[in-house]
């Protein structure tokens, strides 16, 4: 447990039919902390982070984010403005340019003028190092560039928490390093990040703590050096033996 957590999870459960994908998860996340969520495919990692902005509603247990109870009664638009997500496949609108992708939510959700939304979008595109590509459409951008646009789009809502679902999938090493640098910068700005990843080196590089999941449960939580050098559970050690 951490003092004054921005995220607090208690006995979180989620099922699809008779299959229980999250089986009573409990943990806290500190403000500005960088969490990497590791585990084999099907362990519930992506489902967990999607519960944080109710893309996947949880069935039972409690979830609090910065004082807000995340449940069926919460204001979804406000929640998703505060808790941004960067999808594995980026999910950019193909008919909009990079800057227009970034402007859309601030205009629709926050009611910004076009001028203010564009200024904010350009600032965020510059922050992720891609302002010169603002007028290009997604099809004209590389995978790494699309990933940076997706991150800038999430940041345009000035979120307190950013969720990353496999942010380095199919990226080359230089692009992976760029994503790591962006996550570092977010932490310096006080933004909390949770990152689902299969890239062990990336997780070790960016995380303050590792959350290791298997079979819908949290098996252990530890700092990266502790987890990668002396994991406690046999399941984690077996996973690392295959992955590292």
From TrEMBL:
<dbReference type="InterPro" id="IPR003593">
    <property type="entry name" value="AAA+_ATPase"/>
</dbReference>
<keyword id="KW-0813">Transport</keyword>
<dbReference type="InterPro" id="IPR030679">
    <property type="entry name" value="ABC_ATPase_HisP-typ"/>
</dbReference>
<feature type="domain" description="ABC transporter">
    <location>
        <begin position="7"/>
        <end position="240"/>
    </location>
</feature>
<dbReference type="GO" id="GO:0005524">
    <property type="term" value="F:ATP binding"/>
</dbReference>
<protein>
    <submittedName>
        <fullName>Amino acid ABC transporter ATP-binding protein</fullName>
    </submittedName>
</protein>
<keyword id="KW-0067">ATP-binding</keyword>
<dbReference type="GO" id="GO:0015424">
    <property type="term" value="F:ABC-type amino acid transporter activity"/>
</dbReference>
<dbReference type="Pfam" id="PF00005">
    <property type="entry name" value="ABC_tran"/>
</dbReference>
<dbReference type="InterPro" id="IPR017871">
    <property type="entry name" value="ABC_transporter-like_CS"/>
</dbReference>
<dbReference type="InterPro" id="IPR050086">
    <property type="entry name" value="MetN_ABC_transporter-like"/>
</dbReference>
<dbReference type="InterPro" id="IPR003439">
    <property type="entry name" value="ABC_transporter-like_ATP-bd"/>
</dbReference>
<keyword id="KW-0547">Nucleotide-binding</keyword>
<dbReference type="GO" id="GO:0016887">
    <property type="term" value="F:ATP hydrolysis activity"/>
</dbReference>
<dbReference type="InterPro" id="IPR027417">
    <property type="entry name" value="P-loop_NTPase"/>
</dbReference>
<comment type="similarity">
    <text>Belongs to the ABC transporter superfamily.</text>
</comment>
